[in-house]
Amino acid sequence: MMLGVLGGMGPLASAEFMRQLTLLTPAARDQDHIPAVLWSDPRVPDRTAARLGGGEDPLPALLAGLRALERAGAGAVAIPCNTAHGWFDAMQAATPLPILHIVDAAAAELARLAVPDGPVGLLGTAATLEMGLYQARIGRECITPDGAEMARLVTPAIALVKANRVAEAHAPLAEAARLLVARGARAVVLGCTEIPLGIAAGPALPFPVVDTVAALARAAIRHCRQTPGAAATNLVSR
Fold this sequence. Notes:
Elements: E1 3-7, H1 11-23, E2 36-40, H2 47-52, H3 59-71, E3 76-78, H4 88-94, E4 99-100, H5 102-112, E5 120-123, H6 126-131, E6 142-143, H7 147-162, H8 166-182, E7 188-190, H9 195-199, E8 209-211, H10 212-226
Parallel strand pairs: 1-2, 1-3, 3-4, 5-6, 5-7, 7-8
């Protein structure tokens, strides 16, 4: 099965998804990897601005990307952008291809990491938090940053990653994650695909984190390997 990747939101996160898709696939040779085509279009209007600030609707650009992936022969779609999942239902209704939901992938990662029952911390864009994408779907209480922490730490750090200043994003993101754990979070979900890049740019955090880029890559590998007609062995075990 050919995996379609609807990306460009942002470009670095999409490139990291492709890297994780490769690294997490148990493979001994090129031919063991998942065939994939990446549609990386950074011209998609800003998702947070669309939801919170009356910005241009990104749905037409998202649907154009889906059409391109359909033409390329994709059999399923992964979208390495959390906020874009605010348009998930409209996108799924517009394509016969199954779209893998990033929140479901994050939930599977919490189970894989054996995170104890209880609340989880959630870092993401202001729009992702406002839309309740995780709160409505992940099956756990979500502890989120307050408005001051979003303005001081999270939103500027996401902007730093988008500006290719990845190393500078680590300190504010690590601080924001620690604040969530201090409030009782059993783990922290990095619910924006820029955030794992910033977290990885510094020392590892001393508590479980869910990298939604890697989680989505694992979900894509599982889906592609388990779909009839595709190999159903050698599933991700890492």
